[in-house]
Design brief:
alpha/beta
Amino acid sequence: MPAIASRLAGLRRRIPGDVTLVAVSKFHPAEAIMEAYGAGQRVFGESRALEMADKASRLPADIEWHFIGHLQTNKVRNVVPHASLIHSIDSMHLLKAVNAEAAKAGRRVRVLMQLHVALEETKYGFSPEELAEALGPGIFEEYPAIEFAGVMAMASNVDDEERIRRDFAEARACFEALRDGVMKDNPSFRTLSMGMSHDWPIAVAEGANMIRIGTDIFGEREY
């Protein structure tokens, strides 16, 4: 069995059936994606707008492309036509830009709101308090081309498992408060995306139902 297919099979044996696996294909060539595709993978994550648009134009139409990187507003128009889900809405300014571009394209775009629960100040996103304030009454009327699908978070980049667990638990608590509060009448708000190659088992234990794995599938980046 080829290496990528073998790694995917091993992962699937470990991941619960109700958890969606996003294969993070950023920086990997189309040939690697097609090997994963041949092994049954259909959800892929990209972090550069032009790279995702190029791959989407050349690879099978049934691939579900997720944009998982920091999205600049001047790249929104490159992402909106191709993204099944944007994981990284880290400001209301960006949300407005996606809403405007989606309305122009005549579609509703599924998004995850990015939480900042990690120690690193370099990470983007809303604090739980900021997000609770941002998603207030009237949010659906203000952003009619947006489908609020859930929350994304990254844990601190540390070796302290308890700190990682606390970060994920904080993200889950925020997600659940929104789901049971302002989003209670929105059945689309059901995704908690957190966990990567090094910490996904902790994320799943803390409630993640979507994980983003690159290195453990594709190996180190190829370019």
